[in-house]
Amino acid sequence: MDERDHQLIECIYDAALRPEAWQGVVLRVSELFGGSPVMLGFFLPGETSFGPRYSVGLQREFLDTYLEHLLNDLPWSTRAMRRLVDRVAPISESFGAEFEVGLENTTFYTDWLKPQGLAPLWPAGHTLVDEAGEPIGGFVVFRAEGQGPFTEPELASLDPFIPHFRRALHIQLALHGARTVQHALAEALNRLPTGVLLLNKRREIVLRNRGADRIVSQDDGFRVDRNGPSVSVARENAALQKLIADAMDAHIHGALAATGFLSVTRPSGRRPFAVMVTPLLAAPAGGGGPDAVVALFVSDPDAGRVSEGEVLAKLYGLTHSEAELVRLLAVGMSLEEAAAKRGVSMNTARSHLKHAFAKTGTSRQGELVRLVITGVSAID
Q1: Cα separation, 155 vs 158, whole angstroms
Q2: Distance CA 369, CA 320 (A)
Q3: What is the residue extent of each domain of the chain?
């Protein structure tokens, strides 16, 4: 292989990490074919159309209709595509000997190739497959007017790169799957009212949800700086740093015994933050810098989100009147104030409260309020 070949291989693996780099791959493939127009596309799951597309020498408005012409005019199928998995060849070879219609007699030529100044020659193609061998895309090389047919040496020039295309695509799919899961988990964490912070072995924060952002933004005794989480009171901060150190040590030895709890004083005088520190045994010990090894859960008892009465009614099977009473209690009203707000007698309010206890499995007003502001109904 010469220097140009090595550059193409580097470009292919770069595209596995940065999908936008596929455009550079397309340009280099075009160079291999003397500047011929090239298109690379990936199928959308469950669709018969291209998703991301990269091209050179083609008019953008025609890219969306390429597959439409193949499917309508030619005997194109998944089976036909599989004939081009291990090689680069004129796509007509995948149609079978029974296909006798000349290219110039198809609308694929008259409506797609010819308007772009492409020659009446079958393009050469290659099918990209996933690890299960299912087609998920491909690239096609065209001839411009004035260019001759593909030669065997030209087509064979891409054969050494086919394994690299396949490996790079598998890497890209694996990374995409991991990122999709990571984004879903991050969204789920962001819906929790509790603050969540994940630390790596250098005490750097590698993930922090919106609940944690809200708590830190209050600047009320719990903070985060370049040294990681800390709290205002020196004695409590020493205890927090020891809990983190113990959790990191437990992570190395695979033990959960180091899970610890701390009450954090707030200068504002509001109720203390409750902090739990625990090792993350699922993260690989001794792994790289971004690996999370410790989790902190920070709860603000004064920041519970109270759901609308309709949500409470659906979640706990409450009547509208019972749900509205519970909602008012959860925002800090006394039973007397809630009854007055609802315009009902104390006997009626007590009856609603008794029914709410039975339906939510609680027995005291404080327990009921805590359920509402910290339970699933508080999730954003």
Answers
A1: 6
A2: 17
A3: 3-175, 191-299, 309-378
Q: What is the rounded radius of gyration, in angstroms, for the C-alpha atoms of the chain? A: 32
pTM: 0.54
Instruction: Report domain 191-299's class.
Output: alpha beta
- Which is nearest to 207 in space by CA: 232, 231, 193, 224? 224
- The two most distant CA atoms of the chain are separated, in Å, by 94
Cβ contact 26:38 at 8 Å = yes
Tens digits of per-residue pLDDT, 20-75? 899 999 999 999 999 999 999 887 555 555 678 899 999 988 988 887 877 776 77
Long-range pairs of 40-44 with CB within 8 A, sequence gap ≥ 24: 40/137, 40/138, 40/139, 41/66, 41/137, 41/138, 41/139, 42/128, 42/136, 42/137, 43/135, 43/136, 43/137
The neighbouring-strand residues paired with 228 are: 225
Helices (H), the chain: 3-17, 22-32, 60-63, 66-73, 78-82, 107, 152-156, 162-190, 210-217, 234-253, 309-316, 320-330, 335-342, 346-360, 365-374
The candidate with the shortest Cα–Cα distance to 150, out of 170, 118, 122, 183, is: 122
Q: How far is CA 58 from CA 106, 166, 217, 333, 357, in A?
A: 19, 24, 52, 68, 69
Residue 80: half-sphere exposure toward Cβ, Cα within 13 Å = 16
- Rounding to the nearest 10 degrees, give the CA dihedral for residues 166, 170, 171, 172: 100
Q: Which residue has the tokens 């006997």?
A: 347
Q: Give residues with Cβ within 8 angstroms of 264, minimum separation 6.
A: 221, 222, 231, 233, 236, 240, 272, 273, 274, 275, 298
C-alpha to C-alpha distance for 374 and 299, rounded to whole angstroms: 9
Cα–Cα distance measured from residue 24 to residue 84, given in angstroms and rounded to the nearest whole number: 23
Which CATH superfamily hosts domain 3-175? GAF domain (3.30.450.40)
Say if residue 284's pLDDT is above 50: no
